[in-house]
Amino acid sequence: MDHQLQPTVTFILPVQNKQNLVIEQINSFFKFSEQYPGFCEIIIVTDNFEDKEVYLLWLALKLNKVNHPYVRTKMIRYATKLDVKELIETGIKNALGEKVIVVANNSERIKQFLLKDKNTVKDDVLVTSNPFNIDALKETLIKH
Prior knowledge:
Blueprint (H helix, E strand, L loop, with lengths): L8 E7 L6 H14 L4 E7 L4 H17 L4 E6 L6 H11 L4 E5 L3 H10 L7 E5 L5 H10 L1
Parallel strand pairs: 1-2, 1-4, 2-3, 4-5
Helix pairs in contact: 1-2
């Protein structure tokens, strides 16, 4: 990417139950922010009841912020079980980025939800199941 002003980016990670790759996803978001010349933020929205799981998410955010203090982070935790679309709606409503990237395992279902419900959708919401390929993320942002 060149040095012109890049769109701001928000990563939304809805977390339900135990997800094996969540810590790796958080690390990849911060790695992306190292190479991206614009503002980045990460929003985790969870309805997980296990304190130790939520603590691990919080710890991953805090440890990464040591080396990336300019990346905005936010964790929103619900005390009741919600559908994944409600978690995503909350993330979108709290997003500051011009481009929003929702990272979800069931990305096709999420894409259908976003197409149907235009009330909660920002201008540019992208859905992916694999945030680990940083070059692919950059290319996706350029295309949209």
